[in-house]
Design goal:
By secondary structure, the chain is an alpha/beta fold. It has one domain: TIM Barrel (Alpha-Beta Barrel), CATH 3.20.20. It is built from eight helices and eight strands, in the order βαβαβαβααββαβαβα. Bound molecules: 2-phosphoglycolic acid.
């Protein structure tokens, strides 16, 4: 089983999201092989959920969650609000670490909240210096230079870094950073890499499908 996480980031409005799904849902997804997780911006979660409700092997993820619990935190989206809505949540993306000063301590809080509400974290690290909470199951290794640059890190190097990470036992290891249809097969050939976190190449449904439909 390989996981393909589509991280739309702060892209798409409602009409664009529906159009993406209308196309993507016409493609066959191999049930033995691929699991897709779509991570749209928060306001699009519900309409995407409605569209994929009868689709096999397609799940919903949030791109973030609040480090606060339920309560008076205007503008925040709590784990409780997301529970029952999403199966997964991206935590610790380098864009949040950089633009919103998210640190290890805060990310640990988010991880605990997600787990408490039965949302599976997809925990992102930039390198071996980022702390990995040991309760997470999915780790996405995303070297900064490779994100959005078109300059993916070759599989050999990715596996070298994987050796240095303090991965929890029985975790799934994902690669992210300019993964696309042209370079996906080299990673997918490795049993050590369980899938991708895909940004740019997930914005177009056919590009994304070609990234996952390599066989
Ligand atoms: P990218 O983004 O595929 O555009 O490099 C990946 C990510 O930031 O999750």
């Amino acid at each position: 089983m390989k996981y393909f996480i589509a991280n739309w980031k702060a892209n798409k409005n409602l009409a664009e999201a529906i159009k993406w799904l209308d196309t993507f849902l016409t493609f066959p997804i191999s049930s033995d092989y691929s699991k897709v997780v779509i991570c749209p911006p928060h306001p699009l979660l519900y309409p995407v959920k409605e569209k994929i409700k009868n689709a096999k092997n397609i799940y919903l993820g949030a791109q973030d969650l609040s480090s606060f619990g339920e309560g008076s935190y205007t503008g925040e989206v709590s784990a409780k609000t997301l529970s029952g809505m999403v199966d997964y949540v991206i935590i610790g993306h380098s864009e949040r670490r950089k633009n919103f000063n998210e640190n290890d301590e805060l990310l640990l809080k988010k991880t605990h909240l997600a787990k408490q509400f039965r949302i599976e974290p997809i925990f992102c690290v930039r390198d071996e210096n980022d702390k990995i909470p040991q309760e997470v199951q999915f780790i996405a290794y995303e070297p900064i230079f490779a994100i959005g640059s078109g300059d993916n890190q070759p599989v050999q190097k990715v596996l070298e870094v994987k050796q240095k990470l303090q991965l929890p036992k029985q975790s799934f290891f994902l690669y992210g950073g300019s993964a696309n249809k042209n370079n996906a097969s080299s990673y997918l050939a490795s049993p050590e890499i369980n899938g991708f976190l895909v940004g740019t190449a997930s914005l177009d449904p056919l590009e994304f499908y070609r990234t996952l439909a390599q066989e």
